[in-house]
Design a protein that fits this description.
2 domains, disordered N terminus, 23% strand, Alpha-Beta Plaits, Histidine-containing Protein, Chain: A
Length: 179
């Protein structure tokens, strides 16, 4: 049981920042190296929190497309700048969207974070710096993106998020890690 818990914890830490490399048949060694380097550089960015989500693709010519949504405009530019400096990257298309500044959405983010990560069953996901459940709030509409251990945790996170006053809708895109 302890070994399984340790393996799950290590797996969650390894995939905590939900940067999904969705390349189309990255069969060459160079593209795989570029993908790993992009993932590493995005993971090392400061100021990334549970309310930001970034992903990327790398095509066969090592052109990188950045996608996602962030709360801080400097995070978008920082992501583009660090990826541009990676050896082998030919071009960077920064399609990361900056979420609008809203006191209402900021309040919702805090309440959602406390509601999801404060719930006893989900508290184990709050460990560590990089949270595996990302909470994206855009004008009262919530998207949950990330990874959880089982279907029950996914359902609980969605139900908890939907119960927060002021939330208009919840899109639960959490993925269950296959054990």
């Amino acid at each position: 049981m302890k070994l399984r818990t340790l393996v799950l914890a290590l797996g969650m830490m390894a995939s905590a920042l939900v940067f999904s490399a969705q390349s189309a048949l990255a069969s060459t060694r160079g593209t795989t190296w570029v993908e790993n380097k992009v993932r590493h550089e995005l993971n090392m960015l400061p100021y990334v929190n549970a309310f930001d989500y970034m992903s990327f693709t790398v095509d066969e010519d090592n052109n990188v497309t950045l996608m996602g949504e962030v709360t801080n405009p400097t995070l978008k530019s920082d992501a583009g700048n660090v990826v541009k400096r990676i050896e082998g990257v030919e071009h960077v298309d920064n399609q990361i969207k900056v979420l609008p500044v809203s006191f209402f959405d900021n309040g919702l983010r805090v309440r959602l974070f406390r509601t999801i990560y404060g719930y006893p069953v989900l508290q184990r996901y709050a460990l560590g710096v990089n949270k595996p459940i990302r909470i994206i709030v855009n004008n009262g509409h919530v998207t949950l993106i990330g990874y959880v251990d089982n279907q029950a945790d996914k359902n609980i996170a969605g139900i908890r998020a939907n119960g927060v006053p002021g939330v208009f809708s919840v899109d639960n895109q959490l993925e269950v890690v296959k054990n």
